[in-house]
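Long-time lurker, finally posting.

We've been working with Sialate O-acetylesterase domain-containing protein (Urochloa decumbens) and I want a structural starting point before designing mutants. I don't trust myself to interpret raw outputs, so I'm hoping someone here can both generate the structure tokens and explain anything notable. Sequence follows.
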Amino acid sequence: MKPAARRPLLLCALAAAAALSFLLVAPPPPLAAHLSTLLAALPVTSPYAPRPKLLFLLAGQSNMAGRGLAPTPLPPPFRPHPRVLRLAASGRWVVASPPLHADIDTHKACGLGPAMPFAHRLLGASPDLVLGLVPSAVGGTRIWMWARGEPLYEAAVARARAALGAGGGALGAVLWFQGESDTIELDDATGYGGRMERLVNDLRADLGIPDLLVIQVGLASGEGNYTDIVREAQKNIRLPNVILVDAIGLPLRDDQLHLSTEAQLRLGDMLGQAYLKFNSSTESRQ
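Top reply, 14 upvotes:
Generated this for you. Predicted structure of Sialate O-acetylesterase domain-containing protein:
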């Protein structure tokens, strides 16, 4: 190609680069939000990735995946920490940075959930820990969709096994926040308790951890008229090593369904306290 012929191509390339740089420096609000999500999901490696980790499976629906709005700057409990890792959808360990479920719960815009404040609460008690978060929650799901053999259940078990095999470690607990969608139909609400107990038993059997701790979050809201029935079922799970952290009364967003950023921060701290208390009582009995 002659030099004169290259000039139009060069000018086009320079113009495209200038346009992209403008968008990155001062994008319009909708695009800014989209770019923020994409940048947050970019994998960032950590020197702690090969180390054994204390693992936590994050499961349930949208309030676990996170719908809290991200303020600028992020409050410290939501910020990345080199000792808090996330198992990406690709199966790689990366530094955890919200939104944690951006590559898992892909049909909705994810935001802030309880897992980062939970992790920071644990690090505050044991600064030398390396934590591995395993996001598996998907918004708008009912508990029957988490039954053994269903895609959500099988994917969560596969991710937990992958986490255990990718660098080693131990599964500390399942953090479970789900049930809002089971408040719509009476049959779903009345059958919730039995399905939840089967889910716990199946997870323990399939992961080979018969005493696996499950921390379930008591509903703060619901999509239908049967929230009280589901909440009562949550309170009456009679399996060992299943504990309830109640989110009732935590502030909600304007949709009166999803927890606010403040609520997610408080819930994460409550979950962390519950885990530490459970471990402390278990150790004292040994």
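Before you design anything, note these points.
DSSP finds nine helices and seven strands in the chain.
Confidence is low (pLDDT under 50) at residues 1-41.
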